[in-house]
Structure formats: C-alpha cells, structure tokens
Amino acid sequence: MRETLSRAEARRVALRAQGFGETPVPQPSGSATTRRLSREIRRMATLQIDSVNVFARSHYMPLFSRVGAYDTASLDRLLFARRAPYTEYWAHQAAFVAAEDRPVFGFRMQANRERQERSNYFGVDDRTVEWVRSELAARGPLRPAEIEDDAVRAPRGPWWDWSGVKSALEYLWFAGEVAIAGRRGFERVYGLAEHVLPAEVVGRSVPRGDAIRELVARAARAYGVATLADLDDYWRIRDQRAVRVAVHDLEDAGVLQPVRVEGWTRGERPLAAWLHRDAAVPRRIDAATVLTPFDPMVWFRDRAERLFDFSYRIEIYTPAAKRRFGYYSLPILLGDGIAGRIDLKADRAAATLRVQSAWWEPSRPADAAASVAEVLGAAAAWQGLESITVARWGDAADEIAGALGAERHESRPEPVELAPEEPG
User: Fold this and answer.
1) Mean pLDDT over residues 82-89, rounded?
2) C-alpha 304: how far from chain center
3) Per-residue pLDDT reduced to its tens digit, 277-331
4) If pLDDT is split at 50, 70 and 90, which confidence band does 420 have?
5) Average pLDDT of every residue of the chain
6) What per-residue confidence (pLDDT) applies to 155?
7) What is the 3-state secondary structure (H, E, C) of the chain?
8) pLDDT band at residue 410 under the 50/70/90 scheme
9) Residue 105 in contact with residue 93, Cβ under 8 Å?
C-alpha cells in the first residue's frame, strides 16, 4: 500500500471510493436498476435526507450524481416499500441506512434515552410518551396528524399534552423504540420498531466500542482516505478519543494504513491520515455532474477544502441581499475537481430549469461551459423539465448561457424565502 499520496491522488481515491468515474446509466433510457441504486447507497453507507425541494430533494441527488438519470420511483420503492431493506435513523444526520445496520446505532439510542431521563431533552412528559406508545401499539404505524386527530376526539385528562405528540414520536424514534414505516408525501409514518423492522434487527444489540469501530471502518471505506476528523464526522460520533481507539484497532487488523497526503496540514504539521485497504488510486476520474450540499463528497466542509481547495457554504439561512452565490448553490464536479457552483430552481409550472446564478472556480477546465451545459441538459431531462433559462448573476452565467443557447431571465430574482423544514 501507499505511504504517501499527492493531493490529486487523494482526490481521485476519494472520488472512486464514492462511486464517481464509473459507467453511467445509458442515455436516454435512464433506467438504473434497483440493484445499481442499492449498490451506490451501500457504497456511501448512508443517504442523507433534507426537505428543501428547490431543484430536487436531496436524497435523490447523490444517485443522479453517480449513475445519471434514473426513475426516482425506483428509489422510492427501494426506500419505502413494506419491510424495505433501508430504514431511517440519525446517522450523519437524518438519513437512510441499511435496516440491518440499525443495531450499530444502539449506543446513540441509549444516549438519547439518558438525555431525556436526565434533562427532558426532547421536551415531552412521560405520560404523553406512554400514550403515543400505546396508540402505535394498538393501531399500527401512523402519521403524527392521525394521532393528533385521535387526541382531539378523546376525553382530555389533566395531564394530556396534545401538542407534544410530534415531540413524543421524535423522542421514541431517537431512542430506538419507533421506526419510520414510510412516508406520505414527505411526512413520516411512525410505527413501533417491532411492527416495522425484522425481529433479528430489533432484538440485536452492539456494544458501543464495537459499534464505533464498525462505523469508523465503514466511513474509512466510503472515504478511501481520511483524517481522524473526517472519520468522526461521517457519523457525527463527536468522540475523537473513541474514534482514535477504533482507528488503532483497524490498523492492527490491517484494514487501515497510515498515509501522508501532500498539503493536508494543520499549521506546519502534517495531518494524520489513513488509507483503506480496498482503496484504489485511479490515474484519472471522468466525472461531470452536480452535487447536493448533503453529498458525502462535500458535506464536511473542512474536508472539501482539503480535497478540492473549495470553500463551500449554502446560503439558505442568509438574507437574500447578503447572498454571495445564491440560495442553494450546488457544486459542479468536472473530472476530479470542483469547477464551480450553480444555483438551480425547478420551475415546474413553466416546465423550466432556471439557473439562478453560476460561478467558476479558478481551477475549472478550459471546456467547462460545454460540459456544464451537458450536465444541465441531463438534469432538466431527469426532472421532466423542457427548457432551461439562465440568469445574469455570476461570472459563469454568460458562458453557460452561450453554450446552452439559452434564454435569459432577471439576474438577481428575489427568491421565495422557504424556511427549511426540519429534516424529515
């Protein structure tokens, strides 16, 4: 195995580990098989959820970025079918994980139970929790509104807190007693874990040290090459001492090897990093796509800067007048680098993909505009949009509009201020 990596090699290792540079789905069929979609999810080990839907919901996008256009209904069936192979839990954040992996998060469930017992962290009283638990036991999986409606019709006791139904459901989910039984629209359906998941999953328990070692191993495989902070952040473990113990165990087992990456430093000192034994060091990566802000390639901003020299923040919480790049700008991946960022909005009423702003990074390739035009054409077709318009905001906007032959719209339209909903 390698003892040193250049920064470019580390980038290509990371991209290949995440599934970039492989054969995309043939166009124009867009018929990615369920097996291919499942393979990509398992390669990432988690698929983060976010409710912002300006272009496409975030959990759909990592698959588009890796396999090209696909039927999102295929992913819905994979994620939401009865006894689906995936379930939702708080992994990196709210995310889909393999159902059989849920016991690995048992230490997190236990910590949430202890937080509630210690300080009522979830802000709900015990009697409301017990009543919600009994409703799910008697009636099976339910949407929060269905329990709340029942609460309104029921005789009110002196201690009922009907407004606490959602908080009780969230607590029971975080504590592991409840699992997500699907979604109606984007609203969760909650059920007791034993009603939703296989018995062998509900009944399993993994000791904390073993669980963290397994999670670190999966993060290392998914990243290819990583620092201690990277491995800690992948699952938001927030315990670098435990992560370090896991890394040393995995070194001893031959799963990880220490490696030095050019340019990965803290001050003048090199950052410790590790290469997974399955990591490949490809000579090149041929990728052309956009990334969701919640893609593992860029979700840890410090790592994105180390890999791509790319400083990235989304501006959904920034007042419109103070936005530098746009409401929900998406990184543009070309080859093995980030070529720019582009703020996309699907105007479904007009069947139009609107490029609200577009910006270049200094390292973009010479043919970047033509490549981005192809990416945008594929993105529009994937979303069932018939045309593309480009605003005049951003130093890449004119070139991209020219490559597309696109119509233009107002350069800095006032976006609808969509307060991001809670994940899930």
Assistant:
1) 91
2) 15
3) 999 999 999 999 999 999 999 999 999 999 999 999 989 888 888 899 999 999 9
4) very low
5) 91
6) 43
7) CCCEECHHHHHHHHHHHCCCCCCCCCCCCCCCCHHHHHHHHHHHCCEECCCCCCCCCHHHHHHHHHHCCCCHHHHHHHHHCCCCCEEEEECCCEEEEEHHHHHHHHHHHHHHHHHHHHHCCCCCCHHHHHHHHHHHHHHCCECHHHHHHHHHHCCCCCCCCHHHHHHHHHHHHHCCCEEEEEEECCEEEEEEHHHHCCHHHHCCCCCHHHHHHHHHHHHHHHHCEEEHHHHHHHCCCCCHHHHHHHHHHHHHCCCEEEEEECCCEECCEECCEEEECCCCCCCCCCCEEECCCCCCCCCCHHHHHHHHCCCCCCCCCCCHHHCCCCCCEEEEEECCEEEEEEEEEEECCCCEEEEEEEEECCCCCCCHHHHHHHHHHHHHHHCCCCEEEECCCCCCHHHHHHHHCCEECCCCCCCCCCCCCCCC
8) confident
9) no
Instruction: Measure the CA–CA gap between 105 and 20, rounded to whole angstroms.
Output: 28
Residue owning tokens 């113990």: 245
How far apart CA 9 and CA 37 sit, in angstroms, is: 27
